[in-house]
Amino acid sequence: MSRRLHIAYVCGDRGVRVGGRSGSSVHVRELTEALRGQGVDVSTLAARTDFEIGDADRQVVDLGRQRAMRQTRKALLNGATRAGQRASALETYSLMINQPLGRALDRLHRKRRVDAIYERYSLWSFAAAHFARAARIPYLLEANAPLRAEQKRYRSLENAAAAERIEAYLFGAAAYTIVPSAELRPYVLQRGGRPGRVRVIPNAADPQRFAPRKAWRGAGDPFVIGFLGSLKPWHGLDYLLRGFRHLRRRFDGYQLLLVGDGPMRGEIEARLRQAGLLANVRFESGSRQRVPELVAEMDVGVAPYPKMSPFYFSPLKVFEYLAGGVPVVASDIGQIGEVLHHRRTALLHPPGRIMEMVELIDRLRKSPPEAQRIGRAGRRVLCRRFTWKRNAERVLKMVASERGIDRRRTPPAGRR
Fold it and tell me: For the domain 6-204+388-415, what is the CATH code?
């Protein structure tokens, strides 16, 4: 009987809480579970975890909870009162996580051979790539965003030269670099990625977790507009709130369901209160267990992204709307317009066009048969092309191709 494949999944980014509720956390969990569903043993090594009660994963090593790392972080942050000092201290801490990460991989490999390493790209993590090269095992890198550019633009990047060198090292070391959208491919290639080894694998959803929609409201019944995701400016929440005001003027049965949390929560509540609409909006935290049932309450799922360039996102919310058979109204931007077709599997509008979004939502409310047709068509597309199972299968094909190369390169034990 052949031995089960063993993959080490590495996430050295403290901003991605393995086991948490953010889109990035969901991505980690869904892909690792899909790999396990393919008969693979997955061991996860993370810089930070945040498991919900009863959802802890014993196959996850939390490097940040080790006593030495807790003490290190406390010492580095002690006295760092200015923003620049704090940013520099956190960057130093993230670099220092490479030491326990390397040791953890070594222990894991000695206990039971690791056949491949799959890492979610983070700014300061390089130990996994180094270990894979030394152990002669395949190293796959998943780059979900131009992190170095984002850090410099939106936050603070004190050690820019080091971040650039680490990024180039990782992109060059990876047997394959996986990106969620075609917009990210040029970024990777321009910064050291191997031509022909950058693969686009969009986000996905598990249709088995989302029951296909069966009940549809009539044209005069209350109508729920659903938004799933973090409450952050670049998700187009300003446009959604302004559009909701227009929709309420047309029909007082419109309700808004916001599933998620984030820095805009207070601002959103204040604006709704001022407009007299707070009673017509429901906030939900969006725990993993409840997301499918909350999506089932939506009559339309929206993704009102503003005009952005480049738009490198692969919106998880869109795929989960599709999985639930909920008709989608979204901005025609980036990957959204590539995977969905206007009037067939979604209703699309130019980004930032509030009144066009309003018209499309109102159109679905007035025409339940069209909403039903689009929702069912969207779910069919998802089941064929955008499932976590399919993504896991693609990853395993890459691993298999590289393992064959590694076996041919590795000399017999007695000749090393």
Answer: 3.40.50.2000
Each domain of the chain, given as residue ranges in start order, spans 6-204+388-415, 223-385
Taking only the tens place, the pLDDT of each residue in 213-230 is 777 787 788 999 999 999
pLDDT of residue 405: 55
Secondary structure string (H, E, C) spanning 202-226? CCCECCCCCCCCCCCCCCCCCEEEE
H and E: helices and strands count for the chain: 16, 13
Specify the CATH superfamily of domain 223-385.
Answer: Glycogen Phosphorylase B; (3.40.50.2000)
149 CB-contact burial (10 Å; exposed 0-12 / middle 13-18 / buried 19+): middle
For the chain, the distance separating the N- and C-terminal CA atoms, rounded to the nearest angstrom, is 27
- Same CATH topology for 6-204+388-415 and 223-385: the answer is yes
Residue 344 is encoded by which pair of tokens?
A: 């067939």
Q: Is the dihedral of CA 151, 152, 156, 161 positive or negative?
A: positive
pLDDT score at 14: 86
Spatial separation of the C-alpha atoms in residues 323 and 379, rounded to whole Å: 5
Q: Which residues, listed in sequence order, are joined to residue 223 by a DSSP beta bridge?
A: 254
Each residue's pLDDT tens digit, 103-133: 999 999 999 999 999 999 999 999 999 999 9
Residue 185 in tokens: 């491919």
